[in-house]
Design goal:
420 residues; alpha/beta; D-Maltodextrin-Binding Protein, domain 2; 11-stranded mixed β-sheet; two-stranded antiparallel ribbon; 45% helix; Cyclodextrin-binding protein; signal; SBP
Length: 420
């Protein structure tokens, strides 16, 4: 048992926060599967897939638990570490490698090899890459999320500006953002995101020609000139009043400010399209992220993983197939929640909200950057976010912060190589 696994189990002080792995009840006449995720907005699609599953398995009870994201992985680690936990559950990029590396989730490759109904070729490459460990798939792709530029048409119309399009660059953000900002009215031109790395500087650093982590996952790129350029651009937008300050972003989430008409342009993941449209209606528009030296945006998404200790692995696999198969993807697409992981179902999602140009997000897959991950992503992300936010709050220079991130991150990455 590795040091990291020991650490996980030593951290366990409570057992059973999430219901234990599926089991037989009523003398073996009824089987149960426990399912865990964090976003109830997708409950309709999840329930529809479970209904399809129950048509084939009427004797199986599927219990679904929704836990707010802030507590989700803490509870998941506790329950799995205690030998229980859900049979099937959501996994994200930052936590994936840790769970896969230490056997907390099952390798799905043996199931795939024996099952002609499941083909990895059906899914976006970015999703297969994200949830593969040593070339084996450990979480079945469910939906993709990628970053685009949402904007408020009313604010653009009032300023007499043309809407953003694929020709826009960083210079347009600064130029038009300055025109759109109105301090007297409390309106900002753009969200220079600091409280969200995925929607913020994780896009700007590769657009500047840099990277957060190299392809070999051995070195950080946070101390590069490109990272400095991206974060300096962010700081300039804040200093000029084009973007809310970091303190304001902490106190009032930019997502809420955008929906309240206080921000004209807001980079955000595709999952928020439905929520934004329900709030802003015809005032909402969407465009590709403005380009730096390079165009593109960060690609991420959610996968369904199987508990490494589940006692119902064949049933759990069949449920995962129903959730992530053609019908499951159809349910996601038609709900408007986000881009289904199966590439062939993209058009259904685009058609779910014809008032918006959702094709922007599909096209962005072609020029996307991979979400940065390693075995211990959460460890260095905590350092990264604390250092960078500290710089924006004035506690240190940006160069010092980025140098600190790179140094600490390289130590973590080196330890990962030693422990392999």
């Amino acid at each position: 048992m590795g040091k990291r696994v020991c650490t996980i189990f030593l951290m366990i002080t409570l057992v059973g926060i999430l219901t234990g792995c599926g089991n037989d009840t009523e003398g073996g006449s009824k089987k149960t599967l426990e399912v865990a995720l964090w976003d109830e907005n997708i409950s309709g699609a999840v329930d529809a897939s479970i209904e399809e599953f129950n048509k084939e398995h009427p004797d199986v009870e599927v219990n679904v638990t929704y836990t707010p994201y802030a507590n989700y992985f803490t509870k998941l680690r506790t329950s799995i570490g205690g030998g229980s936990g859900p049979d099937v559950f959501w996994m994200n990029g930052p936590n994936f490698s840790e769970y896969a590396s230490y056997g907390l989730i099952k390798d799905l490759e043996p199931f795939i090899e024996e099952d002609s109904d499941f083909s990895k070729d059906a899914y976006f490459d970015s999703m297969i890459d994200l949830y593969s460990h040593e070339d084996h798939l450990y979480a079945a792709p469910y939906f993709s999320d990628i970053v685009g530029l949402f904007y408020n048409k009313r604010l653009f119309d009032e300023a007499g500006l043309e809407y953003p399009d694929e020709t826009w660059t960083w210079e347009d953000i600064e130029e038009k953002g300055d025109i759109l900002a109105d301090q007297e009215e409390g309106v900002y031109g753009y969200t220079a995101y600091v409280v969200s790395n995925q929607a913020g500087y994780y896009n700007l650093i590769p657009q500047a020609g840099g990277y957060m982590i190299d392809e070999d996952k051995t070195h950080s790129g946070f101390n590069s000139p490109e990272a400095q350029e991206a974060l300096t651009f962010t700081q300039d937008l804040i200093d000029k009043g084009i973007s809310p300050s970091v303190q304001t972003q902490i106190e009032n989430h930019p997502r809420d400010m955008f929906m309240s008409g206080m921000i004209a342009m807001h980079p955000e993941i595709s999952v928020n399209a439905e929520m934004f449209y329900s709030e802003l209606g015809d005032e909402l528009g969407v465009a590709p992220l403005p380009a730096g030296k390079e165009e593109g945006s960060i690609a991420h998404g959610i996968g369904w993983a199987m508990n490494g200790d589940t006692e119902q692995e064949e049933l759990a696999w069949d449920l995962i197939k129903h959730l992530t198969g053609e019908k499951g993807n159809q349910f996601i697409a038609e709900s408007g929640f986000s881009i289904p992981a199966q590439e062939s179902m993209s058009d259904l999602w685009v058609d779910s909200m014809p008032e918006l140009d959702l094709q922007v997000f599909i096209d962005a897959q072609e020029v996307s950057f991979p979400y940065p991950v390693s075995q211990n992503t959460i460890q260095w992300q905590d350092i990264e976010q604390a250092e960078i936010q500290g710089a924006f709050l004035g506690y240190k220079s940006m160069k010092e912060a980025l140098d600190n991130v790179a140094r600490e991150m390289d130590i973590i990455l080196e330890s990962e190589q030693i422990n392999e």
